[in-house]
Design brief:
The chain is of the alpha+beta class. The protein has 4 helices and 8 strands. A hairpin with a 3-residue loop joins strand 6 and strand 7. 29% of the residues are buried. The structure holds calcium ion (2 copies).
Length: 153
């Protein structure tokens, strides 16, 4: 299955589940961290975006690549990101170049934190989004292997 087909399937699957509810005091499974009503898991291995999506879906019910729509400093995850370096998050412009949508519901991302000069779609082949270094965003090649953050919807 091509990545674009998988992307569309995910949108259909996730939007049919209804809207996520907000619960700031949600309890998370062991190994998962709570933030802003969702539970998050930090991968210990690297994967392509396609594999990361699959791994998140298998990891937990409602699992998906994290849709982090807030400044990373607010999350309190600084210490984790230092060793994780580049981290895939759930956004892509694969369906419409230059228009970055959430992987969960295909809505335009409101909060962005692009690094200077990004997104640059280098080699016309960068359609996935990573946190690079200190939480600044970069578009990169979806087949690159990065750490990733899963989120439970
Ligand atoms: Ca692109
Ligand atoms: Ca880039």
């Amino acid at each position: 299955m091509s990545f674009a087909a998988l992307f569309m399937l995910l949108i259909i699957a996730q939007t049919s589940q209804g809207l996520p509810w907000f619960n700031a005091h949600r309890r998370c499974p062991k190994g998962w961290s709570g933030f802003s009503g969702h539970c998050y898991f930090f991968s210990k291995e690297k994967a392509t975006v396609k594999d990361a999506i699959t791994k998140c879906a298998y990891a937990i019910e409602g699992g998906r690549l994290a849709q982090v729509g807030v400044p990373w400093k607010k999350t309190g995850w600084n210490f984790r990101l230092k060793y994780m370096s580049r981290v895939w998050i759930g956004a892509s412009d694969i369906s419409d170049e230059g228009k970055f949508l959430k992987l969960s519901n295909a809505k335009v991302i409101k909060y962005t934190n692009w690094n200077k000069g990004e997104p640059n779609d280098w080699n016309k082949n960068e359609d996935c989004v990573e946190w690079a270094g200190v939480g600044k965003w970069n578009d990169n090649h979806c087949a690159n292997k990065n750490f990733f953050i899963c989120e439970q919807n």
